[in-house]
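Technical annex, item 7. During the second reporting period the consortium partners agreed on a shared format for inverse folding records so that results from different sites could be compared directly. Each record opens with the tokenized structure and is followed by the designed sequence. A conforming record, contributed by the partner at site C, is shown below for reference.
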């Protein structure tokens, strides 16, 4: 067993990737992707209730009331899409979008921004900040649902392809690429929060 030390960080546990479901050995099909998670960031309680009612049957939901909490939630938990009001407090939706797109841990999460007073200049600023979409907060429920569903469908396909590329086709186990990716992800998260992280490397043939 190898134990890695770096500064004050002690590595002695196995990454969580080995808890992931692998490819089916019987037919080679992809294991079902868990229910996708939508993070809603809004201080408007009526809008939160409206969005919750619209999406809770099809997606796992996380709800927060300000941009700072939305940012930390995206950093610390599994989030597949962020739906955020432009005018959320502490840090705005636009600032939150910029922070998320500048972080290697969250830059792949699509962000949709909603505005009570949409304008072409605001739309341009949001898209330049890396937003996947921008629209008026009073968009019809059906159109909003389809925007979110289409985006999450792409996320699901990306996850399935990533799972294939990170899984050994013969054994169904995670491969070295997945190990490198997850170790790098956990290392950055630990350094950012000044938290301990551990990894055990064991030879199972012995």
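Designed sequence (site C submission):
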């Amino acid at each position: 067993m190898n134990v890695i030390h770096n500064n004050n960080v002690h590595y002695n546990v196995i990454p969580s990737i080995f808890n992931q479901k692998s490819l089916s050995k019987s037919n080679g099909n992809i294991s079902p992707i868990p229910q996708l998670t939508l993070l809603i960031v809004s201080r408007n309680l009526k809008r939160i209730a409206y969005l919750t009612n619209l999406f809770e049957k099809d997606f796992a939901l996380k709800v927060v009331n300000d941009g700072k909490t939305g940012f930390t939630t995206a950093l610390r938990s599994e989030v597949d899409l962020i739906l955020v009001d432009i005018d959320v407090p502490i840090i705005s939706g636009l600032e939150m979008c910029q922070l998320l797109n500048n972080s290697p841990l969250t830059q792949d999460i699509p962000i949709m921004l909603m505005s009570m007073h949409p304008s072409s200049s605001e739309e341009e600023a949001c898209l330049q900040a890396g937003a996947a979409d921008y629209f008026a907060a009073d968009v019809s429920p059906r159109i909003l649902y389809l925007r979110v569903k289409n985006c999450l469908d792409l996320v699901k396909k990306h996850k399935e392809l990533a799972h294939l590329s990170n899984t050994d086709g013969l054994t169904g186990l995670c491969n070295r690429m997945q190990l490198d990716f997850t170790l790098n992800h956990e290392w950055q998260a630990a350094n950012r929060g000044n938290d301990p992280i551990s990894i055990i490397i064991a030879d199972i043939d012995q």
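The mean pLDDT is 80. Strands lie at 4-6, 9-11, 37-41, 60-64, 81-85, 111-115, 133-136. All partners now use this format for quarterly exchanges.
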